[in-house]
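Dear colleague,

As promised, here are the two records you asked about, laid out in our usual form so they can be pasted straight into your sheet.

NAME FIELD: protein one
SEQUENCE, THEN STRUCTURE:
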Amino acid sequence: IVGMTVVVVGAFLAMILWLNRPDYKVLYSKLQSEDVIRITGMLDASKEKYKLENEGTTILVPEERVYDLRLKVAEEGAIVGSGVGFEIFDEVKVGQTEFVQKINFQRALQGELGRTISEFPAIEKARIHLVLPKKSLFIEEQQQPSASVVLKLVEGKKLDAKEVQAIINLVSMSVEGLDRDRISIADTRGKLLFSPKDDTSLEGLTTTQLEYKVTLQQNLERRIEEMLFPVIGPGRVIAKVNADLDFSHKTIHKEMYDPEGQVVRSEQRSEESTRGQANLEAGSPEPNFRGDGLTGGLSQQQGSRESRTTNYEITKEEQEIVASLGDIKRLSVAVIVDGTYEASEEP
């Protein structure tokens, strides 16, 4: 009986505790590790209750404290994103060398770009690495800056060509003297999204043409991988395709003549005949000749002439050929296979 009583009392107390437990709601989600450290430190200092979920990227607090704590976090400026931004200059230390100031500026610029790019819907986190050469007094000796962008994409999301171009333009316009052909973009899975060598093939393309090029390359890559999966195994093959496409608009006009295919277009025919008499006696008359008693010989003459003019029409064929846009001029294909393979011996 005593044991049963203890069990009932324990269950009753557990039910009371369960009913009185606070209902936790999301304070912030998808936080960077730096933000999580700052916010949890602030909550610990205020002795606020909280829980972490989703591998520490989501902070939950009691429901009745959500809005108050959000205001407090905003006042403290605890959410600044990954890396350090221009707030690094809020506290300028006296006696900093030019080298330290340059490094701080580079860190701040990298952090600000990373925060901006992380706002893209498909991007969870972005890290920027800049190389900012020292300015030279001589133009011919001045080295060009460069940038490398590493992106961690949201699970199940991917960047399209327009978003990649937006990142390229954003970085190139944010760094003084940075050309787009000195920018490289990759994701955390090792997939190269943009490299300088791709810029020549993308230069001058419209958004529609660029999307067509990327879609074509991705479709060919997928078909190659699907073809090799049954033999090599899924996840052990990576195919990369670079398509050189011709988007120039060409119109070819041809006129072809067939000399054997002649057709009479018009014909003109004329006939002419003449008839008359001629004196058969030749020579000059005497000076005192009066013409009396002329009995010279006469002959009858006649003639005819015929002419014909025929105009022919030569068979002519006209063609106007409009070349299709996006014809494949060249395909470059690379396939990486996981594992070591040996050629089988022929029987």
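NAME FIELD: protein two
SEQUENCE, THEN STRUCTURE:
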Amino acid sequence: MRKTRICKLLNETGEVKVDELSNMFGVSLETIRRDLKLLDKKGLLVRVYGGAISKDTNDIGTSFVKRAKSNVGDKQQLVEMAISQINEHSVIGLDASSSSWLLAQSLPNIECTVVTNSINIINALEKKTNIDIISLGGNYSEKYKSFYGSIARETLDKMSLDVCFISCVGVDFNSGVWDSNEYNHEIKKSLIKISNKVVLIADKSKVNKRSLLKVCDINALDHLITNLNFAEDDVMTLKENNVVVN
């Protein structure tokens, strides 16, 4: 009965938290964790840090083509703001997100270096002759149009970037930045580690959402570019974590 009610609640809200379920049902945190683990094994939900999300709202395996068609107007507006963070002669990291692809398309033909694992970004930049392009290489994914794996990560580990631009499946101001698959997750973590400045581009549809894999805490970000109208509590949280917001 308890597991059935958890599934019903999840279908209604899209997300449940272990501590809230524990209080609701009057059982221990460990009991709820076991429930979620069992429901995850049955394919009825996806466990995430601190709770679970509905499979219907999870973005696991979404192809680049599908992502590129989502919220294009919002993303383009945010990309124009992101361009202002780029200086001539900078070394820039771009993940394989559709937001980074739009940024590459809009990037002026200035002298700079772009490091990326994305074929689409390489194609977008190839005629901008002042821009040096460094491709990471590695295992190629047709679905994501990008390179992943140990070769890509090891190449990044040898670099230092002035700034990286990443996107995500979800960002929660308390729990951090989230993504839906290990391929994108691992590259984003590597980009963050080697960058002097980290910029997250996230339209309002991604805010206050979590997914399968945590990329980083909020305090790992230097700049958040979004079109969300913030609640006062969110503004305070970002300010406390030294995140500048556009």
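A couple of things worth noting about protein two: The first helix runs from residue 2 to 13. The longest strand covers residues 112-116.

Best,
R.
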